[in-house]
């Protein structure tokens, strides 16, 4: 069913597309929403601004593209939900809840006010997409080396400050040069992308996978000591070995050599990296397809 609201056309009972004009009566909300490009801050500002005219007890905002789930307040029995989009670009879903039903007049007003939120959400989406591209390796879709450097510096400071554990795992695909030489770079690219996907499947949700360069990957393990990192490393090694890669009429069996290191009290960015890297090369010298620890 199609209905018409002041500034928004209802595409379905849950989906809204914004018009280009913004009602001048909504200037206060629109101005406040220009102060940030963070999704959770935009939703908080919007809900604070409409609280007086459309009282609500709870807020939920989800944005699957960025794995974002924002919740505030107490979720109640009655709700109204809107999947927001502009020019066919999905901007997430907003849900308000409270103990009594929303009246038709309140819903009509809310649908009008949502036009103030649409374009700030689009700006935030474009900004976050640009950030994501800047920190993502285009071939493997893993985080890139720039993202790794930033994350490791931040995690080292956090670990030193809180006294928590921090570990690294360097992963190097065995005999990768021979794959390129025998099958070509297209096959090599497929192998790297496949390994990156297997790594993401093997690690915990709190761990991050980065392409360090060439056929090397690195995994950042927060709150993980050397014993825990070795267990994860062995699981990763076994997972890679258990996969096969089909390329044309050929089937390739890949393996990897892994080096593990855990942050010490006097470690710096460089010293931690060197120990993990040295452990990985030790695994190669010991015959490849194995995990070694750097102490």
List the helices and strands and how they pair.
Layout: E1 3-4, E2 8-10, E3 15-18, H1 27-33, H2 39-50, E4 58-63, E5 68-73, E6 78-86, E7 89-98, H3 104-134, H4 145-162, E8 166-173, H5 176-183, H6 185-202, E9 208-213, E10 216-222, H7 226-242, E11 244-247, E12 250-253, E13 256-262, H8 269-285, E14 291-294
Catalytic activity: 2 GTP = 3',3'-c-di-GMP + 2 diphosphate
Domain GGDEF: 164-295
EC number: 2.7.7.65
* First-last Cα distance: 66 Å
Q: Portion of residues in helices?
A: 40-55%
What gyration radius follows from the Cα positions, in whole Å? 25 Å
Return the average pLDDT rounded to an integer.
90
Assess the beta-strand content as a share of residues.
25-35%
Q: Biggest sheet: strands side by side, in what order?
A: 1-2-3-6-7-4-5
Q: Find the CATH topology of the largest domain.
A: Alpha-Beta Plaits
Domain count: the total is 2
């Amino acid at each position: 069913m199609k209905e018409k609201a002041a500034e928004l056309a209802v595409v379905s009972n849950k989906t809204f597309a914004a018009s280009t004009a913004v009602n001048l009566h909504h200037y206060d909300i629109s101005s406040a929403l220009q102060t940030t490009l963070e999704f959770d801050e935009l939703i908080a500002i919007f809900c604070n601004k409409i609280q007086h005219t459309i009282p609500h007890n709870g807020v939920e905002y989800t944005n699957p593209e960025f794995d974002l789930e924002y919740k505030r307040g107490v979720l109640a029995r009655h709700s109204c939900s809107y999947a927001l989009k502009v020019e066919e670009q999905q901007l997430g879903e907003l849900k308000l809840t409270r103990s009594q039903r929303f009246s038709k007049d309140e819903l009509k007003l809310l649908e009008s006010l949502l036009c103030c939120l649409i374009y700030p959400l689009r700006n935030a989406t474009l900004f976050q997409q640009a950030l994501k591209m800047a920190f993502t390796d285009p071939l493997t879709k893993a985080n890139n080396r720039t993202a790794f450097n930033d994350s490791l510096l931040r995690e080292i400071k956090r670990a030193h400050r809180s006294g928590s554990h921090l570990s690294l795992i360097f992963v190097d695909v065995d005999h990768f040069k021979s794959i390129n030489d025998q099958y070509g770079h297209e096959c090599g690219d497929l192998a790297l992308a496949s390994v990156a996907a297997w790594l993401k499947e093997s690690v915990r949700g709190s761990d991050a996978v980065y392409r360090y360069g060439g056929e090397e990957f690195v995994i950042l393990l927060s709150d993980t000591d050397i014993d825990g990192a070795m267990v994860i490393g062995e699981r990763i090694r076994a997972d890679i070995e258990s996969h096969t890669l089909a390329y044309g009429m050929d089937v390739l069996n890949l393996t990897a050599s892994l080096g593990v290191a855990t942050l010490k009290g006097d470690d710096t960015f460089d010293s931690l990296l060197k120990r993990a890297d040295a452990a990985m090369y030790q695994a190669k010298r010991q015959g490849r397809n194995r995990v070694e620890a750097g102490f």
